[in-house]
């Protein structure tokens, strides 16, 4: 659904309730807030980015690589066409207590902190590890995203979360007009749809972004 389509639906909601004094800028500001919070509450904005191996360090500063990172979904090895396996720090210590200096084909990843991603083991020869792909790894992640500024552009959000944007923006604008009871109707719709979105996204076999990735064989 495009921003223009959602904007029309929000305007229709307001017109039906005789709230007609909002400018286009007012509606667009509320849509921006709605998209931002929907992406956080339901973890619905999914993206990917290519990463190259780095020399002599298993820890990648993912906040520098992807400033809009909210949560890591998975890591895919482009050279060997396979997903890395998530392990906790304790799991890695049990596998090998020198996991930070472990050399070999990458097999595992974990998130030691908000800013860093561990990839291990480390490739023995980075220059020859990759043969045909343009990058070494593909990071799939959930993102903060409030940057849809064109009415012809669609929100990067699965279908289950689209109504959340409409309901949130409508409720937000009604509150600005101090129409508390009318706003509450749309907050109730927002939280109900949010719960549905969370369940639908949680129960998918794989994120839609990964299912659509041609290099992945499921």
Summary, kept brief:
The protein is an alpha+beta fold. Helices cover 41% and strands 17% of the residues. The strands form two sheets. The protein has a four-stranded antiparallel beta sheet with strand order 1-8-3-4. A four-stranded mixed beta sheet has the order 2-7-6-5.
Written description of the protein model:
The protein is built from 8 helices and 8 strands. The two termini are 28 Å apart. The protein is α+β, with helices and mostly antiparallel strands and 218 residues long.
Assembly category: single chain
Provide the gyration radius in Å.
21 Å
Shape: elongated
The portion of residues assigned to helices is 40-55%
- What order do the SSEs take from the amino end to the carboxyl end, as H and E? HHEEHEEEHEEHEHHH
Could you describe the largest sheet, including whether it forms a barrel?
Answer: 4 strands, antiparallel
Question: How many beta-strand segments?
Answer: 8
Q: Which structural class best describes the helix and strand composition?
A: alpha+beta
- The average pLDDT value, as a whole number, equals 83
Q: If strands are numbered along the chain, what order do they take across the biggest sheet? A: 1-8-3-4
Beta fraction: 15-25%
Number of helices: 8
Tell me the domain tally. 2
Low-confidence stretches: 128-134, 212-218
End-to-end separation in angstroms reads 28 Å
